[in-house]
From TrEMBL:
Skewed-composition ranges (Polar residues): 1-10, 22-46
Biased composition (Basic and acidic residues): 12-21, 47-61
GO molecular function: GTP binding; GTP cyclohydrolase I activity; zinc ion binding
Transmembrane segments annotated in the record for this chain: none
Pathways involved: Cofactor biosynthesis; 7,8-dihydroneopterin triphosphate biosynthesis; 7,8-dihydroneopterin triphosphate from GTP: step 1/1
Protein name from the UniProt record: GTP cyclohydrolase 1
SUPFAM superfamilies: Tetrahydrobiopterin biosynthesis enzymes-like
Pfam families (UniProt xref): GTP_cyclohydroI
Record flagged with keyword Coiled coil: no
E.C. no: 3.5.4.16
Keyword Thylakoid in annotation: no
Limits of the GTP cyclohydrolase I domain: 67-242
InterPro entries: GTP-CH-I_C/QueF, GTP-CH-I_N, GTP_CycHdrlase_I, GTP_CycHdrlase_I_CS, GTP_CycHdrlase_I_dom
Length: 247
């Protein structure tokens, strides 16, 4: 069972609201006895890539993007031949291919030989992983941090690979809800752990630079599976460790 949710908060306010639950305090996230509407995202298998879909050819894509960027400059009223913009289409193409390099990456190749048989049954948490992505609605950036935890079931993943898996899905056109789900699904499929928890906190430039222009808004999404969704004590341990070091 996987549960996902999204909420927007102002970081100027108290970041984590404390509530009382069975005599202990922990952040206000949905628990098994709370009522909420989960956001469910359908996604295809993340570790078994569709081999019928060829990966993009970056050399071919580069030229097409550069040509398109030149037209964009013309349509916004600029002169693409002036000194400051002559090389901009080429730079833009190179940058956009990097921003979306996740389309050329495969989770299986990222995990590679970094799955180890280890007799460890307690929570593993890597937090405050910086992520940068692009909103698929406006193609402007959103950025923030992702926190990834899981309870092993006889196997662990090299710690750096958790960040690499997050990067695979962040470096695509995204919505934060799907990004959160995809990272959780990938870890679930690579390790088959007892449970996975992923929390993502991001600021979206589509809310800052345009539209409502709310510079203080932060969006938080999460996805949980297995015992981290079903077991109160396991979930509380995750949030307790997540709070350590926060100021």
């Amino acid at each position: 069972m996987t549960v996902n949710s999204t909420t927007s908060v102002n970081p100027a306010e108290e970041r984590l609201t404390e509530i009382k639950d069975q005599g202990s305090s922990f952040p206000l996230w949905p628990t098994s006895n709370q009522q909420y509407q989960p956001v469910h995202v359908q996604s295809k298998s993340l570790c078994q890539e569709d081999k019928s879909e060829p990966r993009r050819d970056d050399s071919e894509s580069h030229q097409g993007l550069a040509d398109a960027a030149r037209k964009v400059l013309q349509h916004i009223g600029e002169d693409p031949d002036r000194e400051g913009l002559v090389k901009t289409p080429d730079r833009y193409a190179k940058a956009l291919l990097f921003f979306t390099k996740g389309y050329s990456e495969d989770v299986n190749e990222v995990a590679n030989d970094a799955v180890f048989e280890v007799d460890h049954h307690d929570l593993v948490l890597v937090k405050d992983i910086d992520i940068f992505s692009m909103c698929e609605h406006h193609m402007v950036p959103f950025m923030g941090k992702i926190h990834i935890g899981y309870i092993p079931n006889g196997r662990v993943l090299g710690l750096s690979k958790l960040a690499r898996i997050a990067e695979v899905f962040a470096r695509r056109l995204q919505v934060q809800e799907r990004l959160t789900q995809q990272v959780a699904d990938a870890i679930e499929q690579v390790l088959q752990p007892k449970g996975v928890a992923v929390v993502v906190e991001c600021t979206h430039m589509c809310m800052v630079m345009r539209g409502v222009q709310k510079t203080g808004a932060m969006t938080i999404t999460y996805s949980m599976t297995g015992v981290l969704q079903d077991d109160h004590k396991a979930r509380e341990q995750f949030y307790t460790l997540l709070r350590l070091g926060q100021r």
